Amino acid sequence: MSSSGRNLYGGLNQKIDYVFKVVLIGDSAVGKSQLLARFSRNEFSIDSKATIGVEFQTRTLVIDNKTVKSQIWDTAGQERYRAVTSAYYRGAVGAMLVYDITKRQTFDHVSRWLEELRGHADKNIVIILIGNKTDLGSLRAVSLEDAKEFAEREGLFFLETSALEALNVETAFLTVLTEIYRVISKKTLVANDEADAAGTSNLLSGKHIVLTGQGQTSVGGKYSCCMYS
Predict the structure, then answer these.
(1) Closest alpha carbon to 166 in 141, 135, 139
(2) Reduced to 3 states, what is the DSSP secondary structure of residue 57?
(3) Which is nearest to 73 in space by CA: 131, 125, 146, 140?
(4) What would the pLDDT profile of 100-159 be if each residue is shown by its tens digit?
(5) Domains of the chain: residue spans and CATH
(6) Most distant CA pair in the chain: distance in Å?
(7) CA dihedral 79, 25, 168, 91 (to 10 degrees)
(8) 223 — phi, psi (to 5°)?
(9) What is the pTM of this model?
(10) pLDDT tens-digit profile of 180-213?
(11) Where are the beta strands (DSSP E) in 83-189?
């Protein structure tokens, strides 16, 4: 399901250095699947139907000369699909919490989604809050100030996007993936320094941290940052 043809994508035979699992969460119909389609295939469908259960797309790109495969998981926002929760979050190192700027209720539910996320995922997961559908600005029901305040209070990245107009979609995904890479690279450097001090650096040579759905590796370090459109 990965795509190619743009300079950010890795080649088909290119070695993968990292695999990062990122989950999309938020109420139904806020545009999660459209954001994913825009990022993974540069597509948008006016007639998009609600996601049933769970699906995921992949896209391979280069960050700091390393080939990173992003595995983006998308699930239905309806309550009846909450049974997939534990498996859905397992191994995730990034999360995109999406609301619709034209529907206040979807923003009011963000706290509940964040609580669920933090209850199931690694406590240091990289999270970005996304206010989608800025192309419908005349119908805005959630102010930029309210969203900024919430993001700052919770220590989240923040962007407003439009999947329809492809506004800030690339930036939102790359923000999460780059931050994950930054944190993991820092952990790798620390591990190598500790190994050097112990005289065992040769044990780490040629090894890569691979983050998959199995949850072998967790993200460390605290961070707090907001980005505004």
Answers:
(1) 135
(2) strand
(3) 125
(4) 999 999 999 999 999 999 999 988 899 999 999 999 999 999 999 999 999 999 999 999
(5) 18-200 (3.40.50.300)
(6) 63
(7) -160
(8) -155, 155
(9) 0.75
(10) 999 988 876 666 555 555 554 443 333 333 333 3
(11) 94-100, 126-132, 157-160
